[in-house]
Amino acid sequence: MSPAPRRVVATAPGKINLSLRVGGADHRGYHALATVFQAVDLLETVEARLPEQPGSLALTIDSRVRGHVPVDSTNLALRAAELLRSETGTQHGAHLHITKQVPIAGGMGGGSADAAAALVALNHLWQTGLSPQELMLLGSRLGADVPFAVLGGTALGTGNGDQLTPAPAPATLTWLLCAPGGHLSTPEVFRVFDELAAGSPAPPPVTPQPDHEQLRALAAGDVEAIAGTLANELHHAAVRLRPDLQDLLGALRERGALAAIVSGSGPTLAALVHDDEHGHQVSQRLRADLGDLDCLVATSTPHGARIIEAA
Ligand code: C5P
């Protein structure tokens, strides 16, 4: 058996919701969802090292994206470490170092990816031996998107988004992801969603019907058909809070994207393109007309949170 490592590095992917259907809220205010998640190769990296002071937990962050991330005990990676410790009873500590690439509070699950990568890295560093399924279950207590960041690939999410069924999606999809600056708070977007629905009878907190047409298009690897099914029921709420998103979505479509949606609760926009070159073309046209906008091309990835180095 190889000796226990002193340093483990794990990555976890950001996500796009290819469809997001929202049902009623439960007693905690959590909404029932039916969503199709897709992981993209825009990754969060968590390095976990055994600390000099045994048992201590510390966090540092190197962010490649704009915005503020808390380094105190509210940080999801630190909460993941605390949860793994309390669940397994391990006395170990760690110094976590996160390299962020996923837009902060952007609707792409960056914080959840931090938690997922931290769980996977620490489970190995501390030799706590939990299975991926157990890590996903633990992760669901930290946030609805954490189990998917552990799993990766493409999956149907039901319940609060944490009940996952892998969805066959043989085609690699290419996305142009544009972060239009600023942040949207997920609870705030759901609150506006509820406000906009006020007056209509409250839907029950049961999982809405998933988008079967989208699941079929994904299974067939038919990119044009997939483009026709991209949909987000949080769109109106996100646009109510950020009216500029509507124009940007129009601009992405006009400049050649196959389709464009708000990613999750926004404000990141996800535009489906044919390939890398097409993505860069759309991005260049957009920038020529609209000026500075943070856009990058990413592709779908089969990987969830995984260890990339251990020593
Ligand atoms: O699970 P997560 O921490 O990502 O959720 C952030 C917030 O988004 C929740 O506190 C809740 O207000 C809202 N939310 C929701 N229904 C869900 C998932 C999240 O209302 N299924």
Keywords:
alpha+beta; 311 residues; eight-stranded mixed β-sheet; 12 strands; binds cytidine-5'-monophosphate; four-stranded antiparallel β-sheet; Alpha-Beta Plaits; 10 helices
Note the topology.
Elements: E1 7-25, E2 31-49, E3 57-63, H1 76-88, E4 94-100, H2 110-125, H3 132-140, H4 146-151, E5 154-158, E6 163-166, E7 174-179, H5 186-197, H6 212-220, H7 223-229, E8 231-232, H8 235-241, H9 244-254, E9 259-262, E10 269-273, H10 276-290, E11 294-299, E12 306-310
Parallel strand pairs: 1-8, 3-4
Antiparallel strand pairs: 1-2, 1-12, 2-4, 2-5, 5-6, 7-10, 7-11, 9-10
The structure holds cytidine-5'-monophosphate (C5P).
Cytidine-5'-monophosphate (C5P) binds near residues 29, 143, 160 and 190.
Pathway: Isoprenoid biosynthesis; isopentenyl diphosphate biosynthesis via DXP pathway; isopentenyl diphosphate from 1-deoxy-D-xylulose 5-phosphate: step 3/6
Organism: Brachybacterium muris UCD-AY4
GO molecular function, one term: 4-(cytidine 5'-diphospho)-2-C-methyl-D-erythritol kinase activity
Task: Briefly summarize what is shown.
The chain has 311 residues and is of the alpha+beta class. The radius of gyration is 19 Å and the shape is globular.
Number of domains: 2
Under the CATH scheme, the architecture of the largest domain is 2-Layer Sandwich
Provide the list of bound ligands, each named once: cytidine-5'-monophosphate
Sheet/helix structural class: alpha+beta
Beta-strand portion reads 25-35%
Shape: globular
Biggest beta-sheet profile: 8 strands, mixed
Question: How many angstroms separate the termini?
Answer: 14 Å
Proportion of helical residues: 25-40%
Order of SSEs, N→C? EEEHEHHHEEEHHHEHHEEHEE
- What is the count of DSSP helices, taking H or I runs of 4+ residues? 10
Q: How many beta-strand elements?
A: 12
Mean pLDDT: 95
| The CATH topology of the largest domain | Ribosomal Protein S5, domain 2
